[in-house]
Amino acid sequence: MRVLITGATGGLGGALARALKGQELFLSGRRAGPLLELSQATGGKPLPADLSDELEARALLEEVGPLDLLFHAVGVAGRHPVREVSREALEGMLAAHLLTAAFLLKHARFNKGARAVFFGAYPAYVRVPGFAAYAAAKGALEAYLEAARKELAREGVHLVLVRLPAVATGLWTPLGGPPKGALSPEEAAGRVLEGVLRDPPPQVLEV
Predict the structure, then answer these.
(1) ω before 81 within 30° of 0 (cis)?
(2) Cβ proximity of 155 and 110 under 8 Å
(3) In terms of pLDDT, which residue wins out, 63 or 169?
(4) Residue 90 to residues 12, 81, 142, 169, 189: CA-CA distances in angstroms?
(5) Are the CB atoms for 64 and 104 separated by under 8 Å?
(6) How far apart are CA 26 and CA 19, in angstroms?
(7) How many Å apart are CA 72 and CA 51, to the nearest integer?
(8) Cα–Cα distance, 23 to 1 (Å, whole number)
(9) pLDDT for 119-139, tens place per residue?
(10) Are 66 and 106 in contact (CB under 8 A)?
(11) CA 186 to CA 183: how far, in whole Å?
(12) Could you tell me the sign of the dihedral formed by the alpha carbons of 107, 108, 111, 112, in that order?
């Protein structure tokens, strides 16, 4: 199985890579050092890239070739009150969650029956004070995927939206750490793989 994991140096992306060790793995992230370490541990090929840059995204996907499984584990989180949020923060949220996904789907090539997996959010968890920018970026991603799913279905590609509860990854560091009861990255990765590898895969997987 030919697999690309973007955001591979994050907690969830790394856990997915380790769970898929033995597959033909391509690992992408912006931090070259941790990416190399992960590739050595999993046998994956490290491909550093900033996927918010369309030229880098296209070059990455041209090198990878046709995929059976794609995981978009890219994202950022942060608290930005409405009265204080900067344009830079808003654009950064949209770039990390929406633009990276759009560029992947624009330039990726898929084998028939392939699955492309993206991570949304339970609305009740993110539509809270301080997280309007994050919630908007996740909402935009989910809307984009809903429409894109109908287009790519004609090519035999399945788009899967995964909604996870809190996962204990580095995304929580700026917020003081993960909440009590958060899933470990390994537990989250196991649940995701169990769901998305079903036949047929779900359109929306709520873990």
Answers:
(1) no
(2) yes
(3) 63
(4) 23, 11, 17, 22, 28
(5) no
(6) 13
(7) 10
(8) 6
(9) 998 888 888 899 999 999 999
(10) no
(11) 8
(12) negative
Q: What CA–CA distance (Å, rounded) separates 117 from 72?
A: 6
103 pLDDT band (50/70/90 cuts)? very high
Residues near 177 by Cβ (< 8 Å), separated by ≥ 6? Answer: none
